[in-house]
Amino acid sequence: MAFSSAMVGCGSDAVAPGQAGIASGSGGAGATIDDGGKGGAPVADSGLGFDEPRPSGSCSRPIRNGPLPGKESFTVLTPSDTLFPFTKHWIGVFSIDADSGVEGDQRFIGGESLTDLDNDGDLDYAIGQRTDIGGGMVWFEYCGSDQWIRHYVGTGHRTTAGGGAMDVNGDGFVDLVMSDSWYRNPGGSTDAVRMAGTWQRYVIANLDVEENIVGDVNNDKKPDLLYFMTGLDSQWWTPGAKPTEPWTIGDVFSTHPQRQGGAVGDIDGDGKNDILNGNQWWYRNVDGDGMTWEEVHIDAGAAFDNEPLTNLGDLDGDGDMDLVMITHWGGDTGARVAWFENVDGKGQSFTMHLLDSGLGWLHTIVPADFDNDGDLDLYVGTNVGPQWIWENDGKGHFTKHTAALDFRGHGARVGDVDCDGDLDVVGSPWGDPNEGGETSHPPRDAVYLQNMCVEMGACQPLFVRPHEITFQKEWPYVCKR
Question: pTM score, two decimals?
Fold first, then answer.
């Protein structure tokens, strides 16, 4: 099974179980924040355009039939692409203060995940903040294209940027991870998750990382965490036998440390997940248990910039795992997009195919089938501004399309949010004013790009997708209708 970096399907399947953590309380009373009205009671006639409430358990608030006043500009088709048509919708902004109404510091937002946190059958969205400017984590309950309800998770984690989602304690409810900590989903029922307030925080290890990647490193059908950070040897950790115990370190890669740019998947085709480590190296999982590794050089990697964002997928339809990369640090002139063809199918020989360059501050690359034609297209996201999809002809020949003109794609996630059988995109701002023109492109909102491929008749719905495009940031789901 291969894991790429940013996608799950839509649904309510229980995820693979694991165990973890040392209790470390997260402080502060939790609260539910309704971005469409004031207070916790349902709004019968607020003037904000609410529809009738959904059946019990389907949403914690009545549903709006249009955007929140002042956010109408988000709900537009940008641009009108007949093959990859997206409408843009406002989700909300990051804030952990439920009482003051102050939206808080919108810088350094990471830890993104797109997964079904309340087990209601659709995908929700979670984000967290870097530690040194306050930290904290929230999740947005999906109620409809124009209504996402913000809920508090907690504070106390330590992270530079990384985060994700996985079922740590095996109770069937997805938990959230942020570098050194995991937040336990209150579980029990859909309503219990929505009304819980603060989620209990547990410590994983004494780490503060740029990127933590969820994937099955030791091939036990349970999720592990792979960590990358400047000045830190790449390493992976696995949950312990009990939720209250610390995690166990699996192995440390003392050569070729990376700030970012990892992925977990079967690169050599032997049925065991391997580790991609930046632009020039991958580690072959010799015995499959994640404890014995063979270092393999990527021959074409020297032609690509160091510390890229990476992913895995079969781009040319020949049944083996190829690599995809974007350069983040190239800025407005140097950023590049490329895919690396796995020539021998065993990861011993690669050929680089450069798709584009000079695209700005790129920070997301996801191989996924956006037009439901059975091959993997490429979504490429910038920190702020245009977002692109490269259409695949099934053999690794690509045509570039603009999916959105103004979007926040620093850590965008892909999945079938609305369960209509095509893949959507959700993104939020990183918020660093020194990177990628974020100061000149306010506001700093989380935004949902709804794929209208099925609605507009451009493609047929597709609900079950092959393993090579279930992604590592969240444990796999299959959309249920």
Answer: 0.86
